[in-house]
Amino acid sequence: MTASSIPARSPSAEAIDDRVTPFHIDGLDVRGRVVRLGASLDATLAHHRYPPAVKRLLGEAVALTVLLGSTLKIEGRFILQTRTDGPVDLLVVDFTAPESVRAYARYDEARLSELVGVGRGDSGTLLGHGHLALTIDQGLSVRPYQGVVALEGGGLEDAAHQYFRQSEQIPTRIRLAVAEDVRPGGTSSWRAGGLMVQFLPTEGGRIVTRDLDPGDAPEGTSPAPAAEDDAWLEAQSLVGTVEDIELVDAELSSERLLFRLFHERGVRVFEAESVVARCSCSRERVMSVLMSFPKEERASLVEDGKVSVTCEFCGRSYGFEATEVVDAP
Question: What is the SS3 assignment for 21?
């Protein structure tokens, strides 16, 4: 069945959380995905008492990881990790195909409170300078692939754009949003949304990449801008109109959001994919990690005749007798 033979229908008004909706825009040679996270994000954040600023940043990281990881049609894991000098010096989000996600953030409470207290709680400031690593891990039989980009005071959207320019050379535009939904009575929940579009024309030569800097230009000379395809310019312009509230609105379905943006160009949506908060830790996995340490290091972990390990992702604790860990070969 060709694209032109697929019957048109009205966009679904049913807004369903914890779904990734793939789509294609034939008129712009663009493909993309929309992610909406509700209960899965709340469950991911619930294992630690993160301050609101950390929840917001980690929510962005989860939405970005799900957007990218769900594009992989393989068995394995997609891992986002940041290491920086900011008050939130570590983020780890682990997406296991086809639907499981878990996440963890490490932060300096004093530095965080100081910055947030003076109104400097944006994601770029919280991250600071360092690097973002994106890893595809298909198991022991396949060597992991990793792309690394610098974090230089910008947020995760900026870093994702840099990654695709540098590593994939696919024109990509990403929008992320996170919000706290405060209900009457003081209870609240967290929501996140994300939109990714990529320019993938069928004709060669339509993707223009910047020339490498020859290194001998006079100081202060700016490189000539590369002319971008009109279709890609239009797609970027449309994505630029998306407001944060549209990405996290519990009453606005992903299909209606896409129709608002791209109906004049003919957007096609495909079957949505589920997202669930699920940790992959187990007693067997923890023991396997312990066995990878030298025997002397395992012995140093013993306290009162036991070895206790807590999963940083889900907070689950595992206890082992000292003899299980130290005396094992």
Answer: strand
What are 215's two structure tokens? 């290194």
Fold of the 16-218+225-277 domain: Hsp33 domain (3.55.30)
CB 280 within 8 A of CB 13: no
Place of tokens 């600071």: 128
Pick the CATH number of 283-326 from 3.40.640.10, 3.90.1280.10, 3.40.50.2300, 3.80.10.10: 3.90.1280.10
Beta-strand runs (E) in 85-144:
88-96, 100-107, 129-137
Q: Per-residue pLDDT tens for 44-63?
A: 999 899 999 999 999 999 99
**Among residues 1, 125, 126, which one has the least CA distance to residue 51?**
126
Closest CA to 199 of 175, 174, 173: 173
- pLDDT digits 0-9 by tens, 102-153: 999 999 999 999 999 888 889 999 999 999 999 999 877 788 889 999 999 9
Provide the token pair at 87.
Answer: 């008050």
pTM for the model stands at 0.89
CB 97 within 8 Å of CB 72:
yes
